[in-house]
């Protein structure tokens, strides 16, 4: 088992997780977090690549983390483009142009400012014709280019860049497989962090829809500013309302994802705030806090650390 290095990049922090995967089990061996007063990701549109480069150099040198084939998980971005589309089955070298042309129908913006990627969800038949359902994702080009520049100038080779919602869904696919749960049943997962509430719906182990609800009080909770006071009941209600809004949105979607009956809660905020009761009271849905994962094997990592490092751990998958 060779160790994989995952760097989680948030708006004002960096987390690194080192570990390996064997079968359906993840073995974390090292993890580290560094928080910043200044933002790494600015205005959801660009990365301060010089600042990030300096921080990465210090972290990797001080902790002696490997620098090759590093995986990056991008967190806390609210303006991700995501859409399930149906397109003809074409050759791989024709897919990007096809996806880009289809995206123009749904997003009236300059797509030159975005890096697009896609993942096939399934193949469907319409009479004698086969088509494919594809999940298209777009991230601001300046963010991707800023990440690449920062890592390259820090002497770190990127092997893969992913977004936190997709990475966490992949982890839950692993967990559900170990538990023997139904992989075809759609489910919700809410990663509640200083970035806000990142909530996604997945089915058959694949991300379908995701949205980030920024909550300024959560960001302030983790800042080093003194004098901030919080009414946790208000924050709980705001988190719950974000989840309820997303759930209501799903009721307008196709039948295959309307019948969601399970919500997983995770993220660093879940160490301090538990909205399980509020959600269960207002929705007819099972809620589970992912404080422990059967797929994560380590005697050193604690419950709170699993919640905090969930995105980094998921990047090992």
From TrEMBL:
Pfam families: PilM_2. InterPro entries: ATPase_NBD, FtsA/MreB, PilM. It comes from the Bacteria. Transmembrane segments: none annotated. This is Pilus assembly protein PilM. It comes from Caldicellulosiruptor morganii.
């Amino acid at each position: 088992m060779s160790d994989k290095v995952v760097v989680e990049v948030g708006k004002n922090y960096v987390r690194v997780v080192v570990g390996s995967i064997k079968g359906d089990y993840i073995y974390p061996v090292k993890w580290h977090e560094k928080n910043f007063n200044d933002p790494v990701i600015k205005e959801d549109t660009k990365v301060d690549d010089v600042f990030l480069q300096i921080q990465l150099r210090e972290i990797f040198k001080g902790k002696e983390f490997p620098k090759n084939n590093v995986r990056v998980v991008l967190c806390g971005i609210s303006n991700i483009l995501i859409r399930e589309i149906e397109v003809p089955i074409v050759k791989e070298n024709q897919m990007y142009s096809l996806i880009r042309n289809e995206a123009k129908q749904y997003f009236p913006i300059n797509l030159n400012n975005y890096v697009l990627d896609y993942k096939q969800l399934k193949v469907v038949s319409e009479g004698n014709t086969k088509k494919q359902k594809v999940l298209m994702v777009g991230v601001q080009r300046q963010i991707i280019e800023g990440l690449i520049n920062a890592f390259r100038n820090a002497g770190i080779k990127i092997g893969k860049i992913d977004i936190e919602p997709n990475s966490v869904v992949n982890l839950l696919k692993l967990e559900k497989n170990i538990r023997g749960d139904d992989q075809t049943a759609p489910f919700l997962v809410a990663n509640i962090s200083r970035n806000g509430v990142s909530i996604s719906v997945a089915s058959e182990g694949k991300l379908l829809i995701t949205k980030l609800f920024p909550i300024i009080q959560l960001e302030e909770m983790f800042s080093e500013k003194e004098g901030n006071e919080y009414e946790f009941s208000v924050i709980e209600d705001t988190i719950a309302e974000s989840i309820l809004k997303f759930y209501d949105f799903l009721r307008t979607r196709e039948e295959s994802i309307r019948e969601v009956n399970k919500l997983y809660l995770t993220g660093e905020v879940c160490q301090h705030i538990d909205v399980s009761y509020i959600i269960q009271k207002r929705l007819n849905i099972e809620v589970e806090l992912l404080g422990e994962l059967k797929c994560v094997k380590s005697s050193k990592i604690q419950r709170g650390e699993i919640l905090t490092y969930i995105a980094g751990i998921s990047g090992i998958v």
